[in-house]
Amino acid sequence: MAQNAADILIEALPYIRCFSGMTIVIKYGGHAMVDRQLKEDFARDITLMKFIGINPVIVHGGGPQINSVLDQMGILPKFVRGMRLTDEHTMDVVEMVLGGKVNKEIVAGINRQGGMAVGLSGKDGGLISAKKLRIIHQEDADKPPEIIDPGLVGKVTRIRSDVIDTLVERNFIPVIAPVGAGANGETYNINADLVASSIAQALSAGRLIFLTDVDGVMDDGGDLIASIEAERIKKMVDDKTISGGMIPKIECALEALNRGVEKVHIINGSKKHAVIMELFTDKGVGTEVTGG
């Protein structure tokens, strides 16, 4: 047992050396945010990363928690292309759940493990500026596209990276709720994948990690692809090998790679210590996307 532990540490050493001092942005979502043990594992992983010299920055979702509160209020959630249609009542719930309950629970979990996490809404310190998003939806190629107004759903226009830099320099771990502010003070609900990608770009992060409920990118035979270049993954989207809910994550990954992020990882957060296993082992557990 001791020998196995030593072997694991030796295998991790070159990765620890490589990542020391690096900023890594992690989109935290899916089943890993619901299961009690997985939440504790995630908090430990993040705390360990900080203690060995890595600078983790967390952007979290919270869809199931939002749906639960909406259900209690008798409000039926509606989605278009994975985007939550957000009226004023729904926005109040989104802000309350993401910026309040979910954010503070993540912060408390990391702090219990000895880390120093600080919770932020994108509205704090002008961290995330946003503008209204309009969705172009086309079901039939022979008909003109439909422009859908999703309500108070936004897209990122600016990230104040100095807000995050200040916290990181003081050894805090930022935990960010994906809510932004418009030019006139309005509040926007923003997809957490988009926010994580935008923040990774603004920070010139070395890595961007998406925690999902699937193992990563699969080939046409259903086998996991451990590492893939951007050009190949674009072709897989074009030929529909990649489809459905994976497409928005791939789009965010490619945007981040195009704007200076070194690598993007798509991993299954329901696997025990998935972040650590992906970063510090030779095989990893998910898909690594590179810009080459």
What's the gist of this structure?
The chain has helices at 2-19, 36-51, 63-72, 88-112, 161-169, 192-202, 230-238, 246-258, 274-280, and strands at residues 23-28, 55-60, 79-80, 83-84, 117-121, 128-132, 135-137, 146-148, 154-159, 173-177, 179-181, 187-189, 207-212, 227-229, 263-268, 287-290.
What key phrases describe this protein's structure?
two-stranded antiparallel ribbon; 16 strands; globular; eight-stranded mixed sheet; alpha/beta; about 290 residues
Q: How would you sum up this structure, described in words?
A:
The chain is α/β, with parallel strands linked by helices and 292 residues long. Helix content is 40%, strand content 23%. The protein contains nine helices and 16 strands. It has helices at 2-19, 36-51, 63-72, 88-112, 161-169, 192-202, 230-238, 246-258, 274-280; strands at residues 23-28, 55-60, 79-80, 83-84, 117-121, 128-132, 135-137, 146-148, 154-159, 173-177, 179-181, 187-189, 207-212, 227-229, 263-268, 287-290. Helix 2 (36-51) links the parallel strand 1 (23-28) and strand 2 (55-60). Helix 7 packs antiparallel against helix 8 (246-258). The N and C termini lie far apart (39 Å).
